[in-house]
Amino acid sequence: MPWIPKAYKLLTIDGINLKMIPLDPNNNSYSQITSSSPPCHTTCPNGYSRTMVVKCCYSCTECQANTFAHDSTCKPCGNGTWSSAGSTECKNKTSNYLAYSNAYGITFLTISIIGLILTILVIAVYIKHANTPIVKASGGFIFVCNMVGHICCFFSVLGFLGEPTGWRCLARETVFGISFAICLSSILARSFRILSAFFISTERPSPFQKHFSLCIILIGTLIQVTICVIWVTVDPPKIRRIDTQDTHDQTDIICRSNSPYWLIGVIGYLVLLALISCLCAVKSRSLPSNFNDASEIAFSMLAFLAVWMCTIHILATEKYSLTQTVSIVIAILVSSFSCLGFLFFYKCYIMVFKPEKNTSEWIKKSVFEYCQKISGIKNMSSVTDTSESPDNSSNIKNGIRQDKSIETSNSFIEQS
Description:
There is one protein chain. By secondary structure, the protein is an alpha+beta fold. The protein has four domains: 34 residues, no CATH class; 55 residues, no CATH class; 261 residues, Rhopdopsin 7-helix transmembrane proteins, CATH 1.20.1070; 55 residues. It is 55% helix and 13% strand. A three-stranded mixed beta sheet has the order 9-11-10. A hairpin with an 8-residue loop joins strand 7 and strand 8. Helix 5 runs antiparallel to helix 6 and helix 7 runs antiparallel to helix 8. The N terminus and C terminus are likely disordered.
């Protein structure tokens, strides 16, 4: 029997010493135990921590969520694990990412494959009609760069699918940025090539005009490469596990840098290229339709700007989550299809189903009508053969301008 102070009495029930109860000094009876007195336990059930009140008497407290009971104490769960209240062990959290097998992954993979197939079909049509004016006017190397950029854009989607790894985090967002830089730089080079042919000179293109469009592609791509190299050197994207707000048993696995502004800078540069291309398209909107891609470029660039401006807003305002990754993949697919569709689908339709519009005679007719429009001649058949007419010199000048414009169109096709 342990020693008990004189003022206390050991309360024993069923042979178990529960608690030392103070005695009332007046009548030597037990003091009244109020309802606020902590319960007295010798052992605690699983999932509870045990705190000693007095010797041989303990208070039991249930372990909170994300903790577990071990050696009568509550300990926190480690990274990537969770537990409910009153648990004795932690469970692994369910990892969320764009897996190939889930609905998002299957959808994105299917759309990306469709985009690759359509790009290959466009290349096949252009190769089959390689000697036609539309293909020659496409710019040769400019067209090749555009197609390479589209293929890389669709392939870059695969980097966002599957569980993130170290090399995947470094590659996936830089690859799509460089791919779009190639694509948009080639579109900008195409716009400049058209403008230089019809506005800078009516003679055959100079060596500067021939090579400047290639310099646009090279410089435009190298600037993006430089931005990406600085990004992965200073603040490389790393694997991050973000607990979901709705449930405690799941975690999002994403790739992010410490600052979101690196990715915003990469996208912002692409937006700048798209904006300049759109302005060039507006400048060339009055040129002959056979050479003028103004409407196609304008629509594709407007779609590109709308999609990526929304994506920038999501990246700047949303916290790190899987939603940002999904929005980037959607933006890649939508902008890639818009550029491919607006720029090449109609031309492929002309080459396959309207071959009569893909001839030199049709090109010359189109340029002739364009020259009539800009010279103010509404009806060439109504022009009389009067050498004494005061307007005869003006008509002669218009005819010379038409001949020079036709010569420009022919040299524009041949420079490819």
